[in-house]
């Protein structure tokens, strides 16, 4: 067998590579960088976890583009040169070319990126240390229960972290599998039934980071979003203090009537409001519902109209969720809304 | 060789008549149901898998239409979830594998110079079971009872308390039912390729496509049991209150994932491997030379088949397993790219040395290389655990697997359809129409799936029936949707092209491409007995090689004509030495009856009519007993002493 | 021109020689592949047993179930493992064309196999009073593994009964035609061997 190296192919490949590379890369790079500003994008990291992975991505991206250019160059050369009717078919077996290009070069690349990948994996697995605050998150179909370790109260679909500090997040699920994913801060960790998982969050800049359940969990997997608020330490401490304190008492008459409606209606069977008789555990704790960024884990914005719509029939808003339509008297609805909105 | 009445130089007129007498089937309703001819069965596989492809593809169009804009209300979440589950399940189980089995069925006996598969009746059974299990699953959709928990059906979501109703029973029973067809088909391929090769076809002369099919079949044999067990346990948990996956009673939810992916990862290579085999089979005709590095490619095929069993945990990189195991599975997943790299560069070298003939099949091969390589790269990226944890379960993964599935499996299939259409139907396709189809499919594919990389990176999770408007999500989703329509139009043109060829196509000569493997040295379409004279093979490219061709013409010997019955040759496993001629079974209704009895069994299990299921199980046993009942022979012939 | 004559001319002889040991038959390969896939299924099943056991962590068997008694399973083993011997003897016999050996060997295996199933039923009767398939995952595993194996024994016995029936009819098997006997024998040996693995996993390993 002829194992001579195919010289023509190689040098032509080199030439092509130079011409093709800028085109491909420019297109890809532009598309990636340009269109995501404001989205919960992994390429716009705000913390050390996601930051590391973003760097890894760019390394992989450039290598891929280079190898892709190599493949395209050979292909283009064949298409341009070997298509003429008069070319002589050559019957060699350039096995050296095949093994070097198909196994040798890839092996070198792969060993390198594997090593880098291991380093990053180790970094992601780093324990935040014993003194880091611990947030307990429990996944429910289809909302997130959030507690701070050592604090009694709970909230939902929103968790706060102090900027610049590593925060441990302990993950459990009440039912099926979910996955905890804050694209701009940290890759995913699944919530496994019957087990406890841990991850951590770390934000370098203050901000609101949109996040979403990433493991398919049934009908409303699409609306199981949450938000991570990274804020200065004192704001974070205030958030923890609010979690520990009773919910604000009603101030106006409307709010008082609303509270009455809440406690007398079916609501209290499923929802808790700290400092009141309502202590249901089926639905989210509503003690600070007025300050949440959304209703229904990202289903709709949190404003009076949507709140009323949700209470009257959340099934039209988030079909299949576990809160049944509530037979609330139309006349009492505004009071109820007023009360809930005052809980912040 | 000619298609007219004049006998081929090898076999005499009387012998041809005798062969026709023994193998021919008079068209009748009965023969339609009882045929065991691998070519008819192969065609049926192709058509049926194509039909399921259209259903699954139309489901995808519905999904894409829903996702075109944020917060669209076209589909309810319940509908969307059933559609994406059926889309994935059907594409993987009812389209990709059966489609490639269809190619295998039609081609393997022809490529190895045999008159049928090793077990023709089992082959017929496989087809009927595939058809019935596919209909069984799709029939649940109009009732709103289709599977709805994704194609990998993670527990505990799929347990009774979280998904009541028949949805997941349809899934588990349907896949168990289908598994019978897949396993039967695989055993058949292995035995056929081991024992029925033409004399002289030693292992180093076996066509690469056949190698790929055999490696695939071995993967099925060792991978499918894991899926079957998983589904059996799921069904028992749901119906009979067992606790395999219940962490509250010593069960474990990750057991499902391990078993599923021990099957699931080899399964993706089960899909791509025969498709890569098609690439190796089609390329020689359009580069005018043999594929570079035959031995290297065989080595690559075999090593992919083996390594593919050691990487399954890369689908579980976010479940929080120990880091040590992640490092191992990450290493294995990076290594598995090497054999693919070898194949890619072997094909590139083949093109770079040969003379390219840019007919439609070749266009699809080029489309394959471009697309598959990109999909492979993203696969390699996932092999790095840290990166995978960031993009898993996002649209980036959806982009990866459509690139490899469509680029790596569908493009080669389309190449194969155009390439073998003349052999299968005896008609040529319309080249211009084919070119249009290629460009539309190619453009449609990339317009649909390239943006998924982007919005996946921008944080969009998969399996969401709707999403809130985010920069970078809505615009690109719309592009994807537009692309999917383009793709659909392209595929429609493929369909039109096939129908047009069958109806109006130019009659094809036996060897329109001057191909290298044995199917090109017999008629288009082949006679029921495939070859008037079974070839004596002298090289890897028998149709290009004078001696092999001669063996079917002037050099024919009576022991390779075997006209005095329905017979074909057995040869030795390794070097293809002639062993003996064997009698092949006649057509029979037993396969259909058996498959129907199984259908009754599975349907009865589904609707919990257990007594009916028991009766059906007995019917299955009786049918098998009758099927295999030994024919009565005189003692002298049997060799009985006592 | 074709070169005629030789083997093909003597059709009668060829029919006679078709099942002489010229290489493996397709049926043999088919059965071996079938057994290979079945063996993988059992491997997955036993693997699942160990996976659940070690993931569980607590005392095994869980939920206060006592460790399995060994007496009955050991007797079952003593019945099932030797049942392969008459099968081998029967197969050797028919290879020489001795029909009586085939018949008596099959009958002996049949008796042993049925005894095994009877013992298993007996064992179940005791176990079911302690725990069932729905008690916990251990119960599910126990009954799935042993029940699935029992089902295989039943299938094997059906094959053997079927062979016996066919051989009693006459005109079925002989020195040149015994593929079906050989294939059923392969299956039976496999069912036997798997039992050894089950004995180890289900009955012995909890004591380790
Ligand atoms: C045809 C099917 C097919 C094929 C061929 C592949 C090929 C590969 N796949 Fe893919 N994969 C799927 C189908 C397939 N995959 C599916 C369906 C899923 C998702 C299931 C689901 O979640 O629903 C999936 C998901 C998936 C994951 C999990 C992602 C996740 O869910 O988080 C991973 C992780 O490692 C992975 C890896 C790989 C790798 C390393 C290859 C490699 O084999 C690729 C090798 C090929 C090349 C690399 C290109 C050619 C090589 C060269 C040109 C040489 C030079 C190369 C380098 C230097 C890198 N795949
Ligand atoms: C071989 C496998 C295969 C193939 C070919 C395809 C093909 C396509 N897939 Fe599929 N897909 C999967 C396997 C496949 N997919 C899998 C395994 C999943 C994961 C499921 C899960 O998460 O559980 C998935 C998931 C998946 C999703 C993600 C869903 C989600 O996560 O929410 C999407 C979304 O866009 C999608 C789109 C498409 C599209 C537009 C096509 C198109 O290519 C389809 C084109 C085909 C047709 C349109 C039909 C043919 C048409 C004709 C012949 C013309 C006649 C018809 C007319 C036009 C009238 N697929
Ligand atoms: Cu929770 Cu998806
Ligand atoms: Cu995989």
Automatic annotation (TrEMBL), chain A:
<keyword id="KW-0679">Respiratory chain</keyword>
<feature type="domain" description="Cytochrome c">
    <location>
        <begin position="253"/>
        <end position="344"/>
    </location>
</feature>
<feature type="domain" description="Cytochrome oxidase subunit II copper A binding">
    <location>
        <begin position="130"/>
        <end position="242"/>
    </location>
</feature>
<keyword id="KW-0186">Copper</keyword>
<feature type="transmembrane region" description="Helical">
    <location>
        <begin position="20"/>
        <end position="39"/>
    </location>
</feature>
<dbReference type="InterPro" id="IPR009056">
    <property type="entry name" value="Cyt_c-like_dom"/>
</dbReference>
<keyword id="KW-0472">Membrane</keyword>
<keyword id="KW-0408">Iron</keyword>
<dbReference type="InterPro" id="IPR045187">
    <property type="entry name" value="CcO_II"/>
</dbReference>
<dbReference type="InterPro" id="IPR002429">
    <property type="entry name" value="CcO_II-like_C"/>
</dbReference>
<keyword id="KW-0813">Transport</keyword>
<dbReference type="InterPro" id="IPR014222">
    <property type="entry name" value="Cyt_c_oxidase_su2"/>
</dbReference>
<feature type="transmembrane region" description="Helical">
    <location>
        <begin position="59"/>
        <end position="82"/>
    </location>
</feature>
<feature type="transmembrane region" description="Helical">
    <location>
        <begin position="94"/>
        <end position="116"/>
    </location>
</feature>
<dbReference type="Pfam" id="PF00034">
    <property type="entry name" value="Cytochrom_C"/>
</dbReference>
Automatic annotation (TrEMBL), chain B:
<protein>
    <recommendedName>
        <fullName>Cytochrome c oxidase subunit 1</fullName>
        <ecNumber>7.1.1.9</ecNumber>
    </recommendedName>
</protein>
<dbReference type="InterPro" id="IPR014241">
    <property type="entry name" value="Cyt_c_oxidase_su1_bac"/>
</dbReference>
<keyword id="KW-0812">Transmembrane</keyword>
<dbReference type="InterPro" id="IPR036927">
    <property type="entry name" value="Cyt_c_oxase-like_su1_sf"/>
</dbReference>
<feature type="transmembrane region" description="Helical">
    <location>
        <begin position="268"/>
        <end position="286"/>
    </location>
</feature>
<feature type="transmembrane region" description="Helical">
    <location>
        <begin position="124"/>
        <end position="145"/>
    </location>
</feature>
<comment type="pathway">
    <text>Energy metabolism; oxidative phosphorylation.</text>
</comment>
<dbReference type="InterPro" id="IPR000883">
    <property type="entry name" value="Cyt_C_Oxase_1"/>
</dbReference>
<keyword id="KW-0679">Respiratory chain</keyword>
<feature type="domain" description="Cytochrome oxidase subunit I profile">
    <location>
        <begin position="26"/>
        <end position="538"/>
    </location>
</feature>
<keyword id="KW-0186">Copper</keyword>
<feature type="transmembrane region" description="Helical">
    <location>
        <begin position="612"/>
        <end position="629"/>
    </location>
</feature>
<feature type="transmembrane region" description="Helical">
    <location>
        <begin position="478"/>
        <end position="499"/>
    </location>
</feature>
<feature type="transmembrane region" description="Helical">
    <location>
        <begin position="433"/>
        <end position="458"/>
    </location>
</feature>
<keyword id="KW-1133">Transmembrane helix</keyword>
Automatic annotation (TrEMBL), chain C:
<dbReference type="InterPro" id="IPR000298">
    <property type="entry name" value="Cyt_c_oxidase-like_su3"/>
</dbReference>
<keyword id="KW-1133">Transmembrane helix</keyword>
<keyword id="KW-0472">Membrane</keyword>
<dbReference type="InterPro" id="IPR035973">
    <property type="entry name" value="Cyt_c_oxidase_su3-like_sf"/>
</dbReference>
<feature type="transmembrane region" description="Helical">
    <location>
        <begin position="186"/>
        <end position="205"/>
    </location>
</feature>
<dbReference type="InterPro" id="IPR013833">
    <property type="entry name" value="Cyt_c_oxidase_su3_a-hlx"/>
</dbReference>
<feature type="domain" description="Heme-copper oxidase subunit III family profile">
    <location>
        <begin position="29"/>
        <end position="207"/>
    </location>
</feature>
<feature type="transmembrane region" description="Helical">
    <location>
        <begin position="28"/>
        <end position="50"/>
    </location>
</feature>
<keyword id="KW-1003">Cell membrane</keyword>
<feature type="transmembrane region" description="Helical">
    <location>
        <begin position="141"/>
        <end position="165"/>
    </location>
</feature>
<feature type="transmembrane region" description="Helical">
    <location>
        <begin position="102"/>
        <end position="121"/>
    </location>
</feature>
<dbReference type="InterPro" id="IPR024791">
    <property type="entry name" value="Cyt_c/ubiquinol_Oxase_su3"/>
</dbReference>
<protein>
    <recommendedName>
        <fullName>cytochrome-c oxidase</fullName>
        <ecNumber>7.1.1.9</ecNumber>
    </recommendedName>
</protein>
<dbReference type="Pfam" id="PF00510">
    <property type="entry name" value="COX3"/>
</dbReference>
<feature type="transmembrane region" description="Helical">
    <location>
        <begin position="70"/>
        <end position="90"/>
    </location>
</feature>
